[in-house]
Design brief:
By secondary structure, this protein is an all-alpha fold. It has a domain at 64-228: MetI-like (MetI-like fold). It has 15 helices and no strands. Helix 1 (6-33) runs antiparallel to helix 15 and helix 4 packs across helix 8. The longest helix is centred in the first third of the chain and has 32 residues, at 66-97. 27% of the residues are buried.
Length: 273
């Protein structure tokens, strides 16, 4: 006899499938639009392209120097990920394991900055970069993104789970804080480091507002700024813009496909006390 759990399981499956379809619909629409002609987008003939125009992809990626844009995005995202791992790991270890006056208050002050909208600090950040004459340079693009309060919180939470007995054993052998951090704590924190690096890379790759503000020449544009430029340069050519969007999303989609367990791990680590 049936145990009565079959129908609820099927219902849950159908509900999840419907939710996945809703979540994926913008990407499906983007992909289908990228294969249409400019006039077909506004013809009202349906969402499926009548004759898929695969040529939209090479055309869209050559009307602007997207090879340079992708290189800039790769440099930007890689440098930001490496910088955030370095600053978050060291600060997170200090907040988790080193007793110093005002540690908890300082950590709460760090966390309070997460309540400040990012747009509020855009102008002060821009003024600092402009004063340093770093506008339209890699250092101006990267330097303000090297510290992540969320990353510090994530690493602190993970380091708090590392058994103190391991650190005490290293301390008995004469190791100091730096040696313990590098040889004991950091190797054990590889899952958290991988999670932080992945989140930082994805966040930098899809960053639009700051690169749009701090870069001026086409040689320094990142992919997201290049896609946004279709609105003005090519009079809102939707198929080209969607083709460029698909090309920009594809590396992140592949990255997520092979590293999705780290996204899940990141959600779990946020709840560690």
């Amino acid at each position: 006899m049936a145990d009565g759990t079959g129908a609820p399981r099927i219902a849950r499956g159908l509900l999840l499938a419907a939710a996945c379809l809703v979540m994926a619909s913008p990407f499906l629409w983007m992909g289908l639009t990228s294969l249409m002609g400019q006039l077909e987008v506004f013809s009202g003939g349906g969402i499926l392209p009548r004759a898929p125009r695969w040529a939209n992809y090479p055309e869209a990626l050559t009307v602007q120097p997207f090879g340079r844009y992708f290189l800039n995005s790769l440099v930007f995202a890689t440098a930001v990920a490496a910088g955030q791992v370095a600053t978050s790991a060291t600060a997170g270890y200090a907040f988790a394991r080193i007793d110093f006056p005002g540690r908890d208050r300082l950590f709460m002050l760090f966390l309070s900055t997460m309540m400040v909208p990012a747009v509020v600090v855009l102008i002060p950040r821009f003024l600092v970069i402009d004063a340093l004459d770093w506008i339209d340079t890699y250092q101006g693009l990267i330097s303000t993104e090297l510290v992540s309060v969320w990353g510090i919180f994530l690493m602190r939470q993970y380091f708090r789970t590392v058994p103190r007995e391991l650190e005490d054993a290293a301390r008995v052998d004469g190791a100091g804080h730096l040696r313990i951090f590098w040889s004991v704590a950091l190797p054990l924190a590889k899952p958290a480091v991988a999670t932080l690096a992945l989140f930082a890379f994805v966040d930098a790759w899809k960053n639009l507002l700051w690169p749009l503000l701090v870069t001026r020449s086409m040689e320094m544009r990142v992919v997201e700024v290049g896609i946004a430029a279709f609105h003005s340069t090519y009079e809102i050519n939707w198929p080209y813009q969607m083709a460029a969007g698909v090309a920009a999303v594809l590396p992140i989609a592949l990255l997520f496909l092979f590293t999705q367990r780290y996204f899940v791990r990141g959600i779990q680590l946020e709840g560690i006390r």
